[in-house]
Amino acid sequence: MKKLFLRVLLPAFAPLLLLAVWQVAAVRVDNRIILPPMMDVLHLIIHPTEDLLSMGSLLSNLAISLARVMAGYLLAVVLAVSIGITMGYYRPLFRTFSLFFALFRPVPPLAWVPLVLAWFGVASFATLAGLEYGRWYMYLNNLKISMVFIIFIGGFYPVLTSTIQGVQSVRTTLLDSARVLGAGEMAIFTKVLLPAALPTIVTGMRIGLGVAWMCLVSAEMLPGSLSGIGYLITHAFTVARTDVVIAGMISIGVVGASIDFIFRLFEERTFSWQRRSR
Fold first, then answer.
1. Are 176 and 170 in contact, with CB atoms under 8 Å apart?
2. Superfamily designation of domain 55-94+108-277
3. I want to staple 236 with a disulfide (CB 3.0 to 4.6 A). Which of 30, 101, 240, 241 is the partner?
């Protein structure tokens, strides 16, 4: 009973309290534009394939947004992990480029919007591939370069910082011991350095994905966007459909929380040795 309370009932308390406050407030306000009833929003969520505002369903827009986030995030992870491991392992490279990255890290992703629009305009991955029609054109045209770039910037620096920190935090005694035992540089990297730094790197990847997901709505407000959950929320606001706005916000939160849960589950199962070693 105690285990059920700690795992299910206690985490559900705050969401249930929020729903109760929402319903009471909606009844008192009695204005669907300011605060729609909970059941109106719930109807949209439990019918995710229903067409909304002639812009497609909640599910289809969410899928497009998820594809954009994954495109920008995966690019960020590949570059940030590669650069971070190199900078963390080779001190001269760290001293050379640390100031360079430190100058750009505090710049918010939205501050890049004017430059991104000037550089890429409304070009998409379909433009890069030279496609003008067909099924792949429909898919790739939704991946606007400007949007993916904003999401990329959001996810890049958390992953880069955590990767550098993870590599530099590996004890030199482990590396020196491996060298004394005759291990080559490749063996040291794959069997000592990377396993020791991986928990910190995965934590950075988890944070980076959260930031990239938060940049989504802002990215989908850029010119050229005609789909996506962020664009749906913005358009719904202009036509006073607050229920669609809230349903979109809840969808973003649910997907983000689900992805974070998967990361935490992966961390708990893969790096359980960390807890046992403390």
1. no
2. MetI-like (1.10.3720.10)
3. 241
| 244's tokens | 């669609």
As a whole number of angstroms, the distance between CA 69 and CA 223 comes to 17
Spatial distance between the Cα atoms of 19 and 12, rounded to a whole number of angstroms: 11
pLDDT tens digits for range 111-137: 888 888 888 877 877 777 777 777 777
Q: Phi/psi at 238 (nearest 5 deg)?
A: -70, -25
Separation of alpha carbons 39 and 37, rounded Å: 5
Domain assignments of the chain as residue spans, ordered by start: 55-94+108-277
pLDDT in tens, 218-238: 788 777 677 788 888 888 888
Q: Which residue has the tokens 């985490």?
A: 11
CA distances from 174 to 169, 171, 177, 188, 271 (A): 11, 6, 5, 9, 18
Question: What pTM, to 2 d.p., does this model score?
Answer: 0.82
